[in-house]
Amino acid sequence: MPSLGADMESGTLTEWLVKPGDRVHRGDIVAVVETDKGAIEIEIFEDALVAELLVARDTEVAVGTPLARLDRVGEATPSPPRVAPAAVQPAPAKPAPPVRPAAPPRTMPPPVSTPPRVPPPTAPPTAVTVPPAGTRRKISPAARQHARERGVDLDRVVGTGDGGVVTVADVEQFVLAAAARPTAPPEERAEAADVAAAPRGDVAREPSPMRRAIAAAMSRSKREIPHYYLAHTIDLEPALAWLERRNAQRPIEQRVVYGALLLKAVARAAAENPALNGYWRDGAFDGRAVVNVGVVIALRGGGLAAPALQDAGALDVDALMAALKDATERARRGRLKSSELSSATITVSSLGDTGVESIYPIIHPPQVAIVGFGAVVSRPWVAGGGLYVRRVVTVTLAADHRASDGHDGARFLATIERLLAKPEAL
Amino acid sequence: MNEADLRQAVLQALYSIAPEAEGEPIDAQANLRDQLDIDSMDYLNFLVALKNAVGVEVPEADYAQVASLDDCVRYLTARLPSA
Q1: Domain that holds residue B26
Q2: Residue B9 pLDDT more than 50?
């Protein structure tokens, strides 16, 4: 079980895409693992022959546990059991919790063995939604998710949407109504217990696995990383005008969103300012030459994912747009690849073209910098002695003071500004 | 395509990018992006889906004219390729 993030401790193997006897090649997707970050496709890193699957479907195992035994290709035939088992990953000798000294109390509940998980893993979400009788109820997907989060039994919720569809508002109504009831007199308690279970679960709501993962990573970041922050407002008019002219000449499928330009500028600026690109590990800065830009993608229904666009500075704007589109779609479908989740060397969090003007993001450990872009807004702007209305964006940098200083950060933001002033050269 | 068909086509295009919105009430006069929390990438995907369904391509300069569900229907009605 590969580690797909700094705070991942275990994952559940939900699907095998290979079977014993299959030939696999470097880069093939061999399995799907459900983690805090959603479903992740596991890639293989060598050409081999699958000898044996060691972990059954729907089993949760600790990071480092071998998932399968592989035979090297070219060595005879797969015949009888070979010794020298090769694990999928260079199995980190026994997953023992090596890094963390036993001292600091863990902030996250140990994920593997402890029982107090609310929905028993044996009950797949679909079980909730199947109506008892043969009646097929209509429930909006959002309402379904809402009910799951709040521990509401949908069978008890009355639908008031078009054609009796159960909506989010109906679920909310049910929760409120149930919450109003729990203080029933003692003699009614027995009967009410059943109903009260829902609101009580609501009060002490257990965070979703993704929420827990975000909480753990961000807590670690704020605990360990001495952040410093810089902000700068950039005239985005040249970049936007250039992009709008370019988009106007193309069919809609080939339009590029301005976010792709921002990513390109960040990737190139990070290459020019290497103190911001890489990792802080074991008390030292591990700088990287290649810039893999992690993109924070808000997921519909809450939470986020930050897949990396590999070597983003080397991609032209169209290729970068295609990569961004692909990663966004897969992040929202919950199908990112293992390599995408652990390879970012710097991250960008962009609020998009609506919303507030600035964001002060939190570094994703073990990275050493994160760049934030606020919404694009029209503002009075002085240029060359004249006053103009320009579309501007506030770019912020949160960086690890162990790895770089404010001076490096300021140069980095100035580089982004310089690059965006000449979009045609990006 | 009549107006009801167009409205349906717009909704289908919306559900393709915001599946959780299906079955939920939509305010036909409110900004769709605010209402359904659609980012610029998904908004572009929505317009591509709309073009594939209806055959009308919305230029970037016209984005403000297709902000709400009613806007979309009005905009498309005026530009439907005459059969």
Answers
A1: 3-79
A2: yes
Q: Does B64 touch chain A (CB under 8 A)?
A: no
Q: Which chain B residues touch A300 with a CB distance below 8 Å?
A: 18-20, 37
Contact yes or no for A300 and B20 at CB 8 A: yes
Q: Tell me which of 3.40.50.740, 3.30.559.10, 1.10.510.10, 1.10.443.10 is the CATH number of domain A226-425.
A: 3.30.559.10
Encode pLDDT of A192-227 as tens digits: 444 444 444 455 577 888 888 888 889 999 999 999
Residues of chain A with pLDDT under 50: 76-135, 182-201
Fold held by A10-87:
OB fold (Dihydrolipoamide Acetyltransferase, E2P) (2.40.50)
Give the chain A residue whose CA is nearest to the CA of B45.
Answer: A253
- E strand or H helix that includes residue A222: helix A209-224
Kindly report the length of chain B.
Answer: 83
Domain A128-203 belongs to what architecture?
Irregular (4.10)
CATH code of B55's domain: 1.10.1200.10
The DSSP annotation for A338-365 comes to HHHHH--SEEEEE--SSS-S-------T
CB contacts, 8 Å: B23 with chain A: 138-143, 161-162, 165-167
pLDDT in the model for residue A156? 79
Reduced to 3 states (helix: H, G, I; strand: E, B; else coil), residue A424 is helix
Q: Fill in the DSSP letter of residue A63.
A: T
Sequence-distant contacts of A79-87: CB under 8 A, at least 24 apart:
A81/A51, A81/A52, A82/A51, A85/A51, A86/A48
Confirm if A4 and A11 have CB atoms less than 8 A apart: yes
User: Per the structure, how many domains does chain B have?
Assistant: 1
Residues of chain A whose beta carbon is less than 8 angstroms from a beta carbon of chain B are: 138-143, 145, 161-162, 165-169, 244, 247-248, 251-253, 255, 257-259, 298, 300-301, 324-325, 328, 352-354
Domain with CATH 3.30.559.10 in chain A: 226-425
Contact flag B24-A168 (C-beta cutoff 8 Å): yes
pLDDT at A37: 65
This model's pTM is above 0.90? no
Q: State whether residue B62 sits within 8 Å of chain A by CB.
A: no
Q: In chain B, which residues have their Cβ closer than 8 Å to the Cβ of A162?
A: 23, 25
Measured in degrees and rounded to the nearest 5, phi and psi for residue A369 equal -160, 150
CATH 4.10.320.10, chain A: domain bounds = 128-203
